[in-house]
Design goal:
Blueprint lengths: L3 H12 L27 E6 L7 H12 L6 E6 L9 H7 L4 E6 L10 H15 L5 E5 L10 H17 L4 E6 L12 H8 L2 H6 L2 E5 L12 H14 L4 E6 L9 H12 L8 E7 L2 H4 L7 H12 L16 E5 L6 E5 L1
Parallel strand pairs: 1-2, 1-8, 2-3, 3-4, 4-5, 5-6, 6-7, 7-8
Antiparallel strand pairs: 9-10
Helix pairs in contact: 4-5, 9-11
Amino acid sequence: MTGGPTGTARRRRVLGSLVAVVLLTIAPALTADAQSRPLPPTLWGITLDDTADIRAGTLDAEVASLRALPAMPIARVVMDVGTRPAAYATAVNALAPVSYLMAELGDSSEMKRQSVAAYQRFEESLVTAYRGTVDLWEIGNEVNGEWVGSTAREVAKITDAYDSVTAVGGTTALTLYYNPNCWTKRSHEMFTWAQANIPSSIKAGVDEVLISYYPDDCNDFWPTQAGWQSVFDQLHAMFPNARLGFGESGISTDRGSAAAKAALLTKYYTLHIAGDDYLGGYFWWYYAEDAVPYEGNAVWNALHSAIAAGPPHGSTGVGTSTATCSTSWVRPMGGWFSRATP
């Protein structure tokens, strides 16, 4: 049995209401004419799956954990199809000062049940409401997954979301599902599906292309350094104008010891990719469950250590230079950014 589709569908059902750390929702309480912030070269992403109508104590603990990190992260919030923007207002207002915000316009596990028309109404309402406050919009999640339903309908939804976001000047991200030799239908292999189905306008115009990868969904396979480099080199050839990185990471079932999770997190967040406009990303899916509360927490400590060390040498998100440099972290009022010194 291949692990990808089964593991991912199981992970989504367990989560129920998926609101990932990306913070997709930008709360109505934020001003409608506020401007989204320029994103830094390297993104340190996490996912929060519990932000809809979140309890005050839980939210306070998440905010404290993000504030304590040595660089400003990006919080990815998965917006469930059918929810309303107001459900996320409290979380967004609290999280925005301590993290960049990425909004996921519906999770892959929800796509099979949604008509194109219903999805369009959903995504348009969110983009209209939060056009000036979300820093990054995920226009498609694990789009080549074998569980998303009709390919034609999935492509129509991606296109609708892309058009809505670009129409208001937003920044777009597309997440593919990496499934090396663990697909059931070869047509859903990541590169094969993307080459055949992503419209040329999106291949040329999307701002960021991310991959979701869970080793336990794929026979516990972890590519070599050269293997990972090849993956991103191929993506760069297909999406020449996009920054590249990871859009989801972790253990799909969230099973395992804290030490095992911390070790896996470190493998993702310290991965060296040369060139390819590599941005990092990562977006550990079970951040709320695994890293909060943060005091004395092995997973949070691993994240802190990876960020404190700075981007792996050469993985600056821009260019291909291998010149020696040192990196210091600065946190102005607008948030953390990295400063490289030759």
